[in-house]
Design a protein that fits this description.
75% helix, mainly alpha, Growth Hormone, Chain: A, 428 residues, 21 helices, single chain
Length: 428
């Protein structure tokens, strides 16, 4: 997933003498970093569920803390980019990212769930700046007619991270020790405290290393000379969110992105529990399937989608993918055994193109409203904060995580409606 605040190509003035290759590679590398930390969340959820003995609703707050930050910081990030430039925004975002990673250390020492949520909020605040800045660079390099393909290609590195992060996280964060309520009850207070403390401590080293790497990347950006990219003049129309909504397809895009992100977070974050419930896997095996299966499918889907968009209209591809995911969600709800896991992996493949495609279709032909439209689409990903708790409530109420997957099924219905009808450019 990525969060563009992308002005149109015509609104940029660039120094044509600059070599774009190195800056493009450098900025595109950010897609991997935020993809990596995002895809550690499905590992954190079962891990912190054990460490703090959480139910599904409580564990879903991990996603909520992340995506509420995106909602809160989207407009401030856009303001910083306009006032101080994209390079400053990227460096500031990387520093916030690193700070959030380092805060995992005191959070683990205090063994307070709220501190973990706070650290994740700060990480996500930094990611908002990164994603708001990186996407303009990915889209402006090249002709406008291939912007969707370029954005999908850049986000393929996000897909690579979706494969790598669960494998690494599962290896170094998940202990593989799983205890039933009966086993918990048999432990002495001291033994229980020692077990829970040990579980919480395992996050310290991975996030410390990640924080150091992010700091090094921040230094690299500080010393690197990025292309001279400037925006054209602002006008009142382009800063008015109500006027931006006169574009009906933009309104549809905001709604579709809200539900898509909610679906993506629901499917990915509860993958391990679905694998344990539906197929009887242990958490480490489930983490391997999350990386080598789910993550790899997402990455492959990005590359395949980029290829197919050269042959099919993006809205037609989006509608076909959404329809397929409606069917696969039904399989995840009513299926059993390994079929459930394979259905979730297939969903990842067909989700892969949805975010950038909805974004590109949403800002199409909005003119002076492009910047505001981008910020509005960024804010719409608050669906990732609000919809997973709905899944958690359904799961806790019915006693089955599979029943909760009615939430992503309905989300894909909304995406299908956008792709078949809502994307059509029409001002109101």
């Amino acid at each position: 997933m990525a969060l563009p605040a992308t002005p149109s190509n015509n609104n940029f003035i660039s120094n044509q003498t600059n070599n774009w290759l190195y800056p493009f590679i450098l900025v595109t590398s950010l897609f991997f970093f935020w993809g990596f930390v995002h895809n550690l969340d499905p590992i954190l959820i079962p891990h912190l569920r054990k460490s703090f003995r959480l139910n599904d609703l409580q564990s879903s707050l991990i996603d909520s803390s992340v995506f509420i930050a995106y909602f809160a910081m989207a407009l401030p990030a856009g303001y910083v980019m306009r006032k101080y430039g994209y390079k400053s925004g990227i460096v500031g975002g990387l520093l916030l990212f690193a700070l959030g990673c380092f805060l995992f250390l005191p959070a683990a020492d205090t063994h307070q769930y709220i501190y973990f949520l706070g650290a994740l909020f700060i990480i996500a605040s930094g990611l908002t700046f990164l994603e708001t800045a990186a996407n303009p660079y990915a889209t402006i390099i090249g002709p406008p007619e291939t912007a969707t393909r370029r954005l999908n290609f850049a986000q393929s590195f996000n897909g690579l991270a979706a494969m790598v992060a669960p494998i690494i996280g599962g290896q170094f964060i998940l202990s593989g020790t799983e205890m039933s309520d009966e086993a918990y009850a048999k432990l002495s207070p001291e033994a229980l405290n020692n077990y829970l403390t040990t579980e919480a401590q395992s996050v310290k080293m991975p996030y410390l290393i990640l924080g150091i790497l992010v700091l090094l990347v921040a230094v690299l950006f500080m010393v690197s000379k990025l292309p001279d990219v400037k925006e054209g003049d602002d006008n009142a129309a382009g800063n008015n969110p109500l006027k931006a909504f006169r574009h009906r397809h933009l309104t549809w895009a905001v709604v579709a992105q809200f539900f898509y992100v909610g679906a993506q977070v629901c499917v990915g974050s509860f993958f391990i529990k679905m694998a344990r419930t539906g197929a009887g896997m242990d958490e480490k095996t489930a983490a391997q399937y999350l990386g080598w299966g789910y993550g790899a499918a997402f990455m492959l889907g990005r590359f395949v989608g980029t290829f197919l968009m050269g042959r099919f209209a993006s809205e037609k591809l989006l509608s076909a993918y959404a329809l397929i995911n409606i069917v696969l969600s039904a399989v995840a709800i009513f299926g059993s055994g390994i079929v459930v896991v394979y259905a979730l992996i297939a969903i990842a493949f067909f989700m892969s193109i949805m975010f950038p495609t909805i974004f590109s279709l949403g800002i199409k032909e909005v003119g002076a409203d492009t910047k505001m439209a981008s910020s509005l689409i960024v804010m719409s990903i608050v669906g990732g904060a609000l919809l997973p708790p709905v899944l958690g409530v359904i799961s806790d109420a019915t006693g089955s995580i599979q029943n909760g997957y009615i939430v992503p099924l309905l989300c894909f219905v909304v995406v299908f409606l956008f792709a078949t009808k809502g994307h059509k450019v029409k001002s109101v």
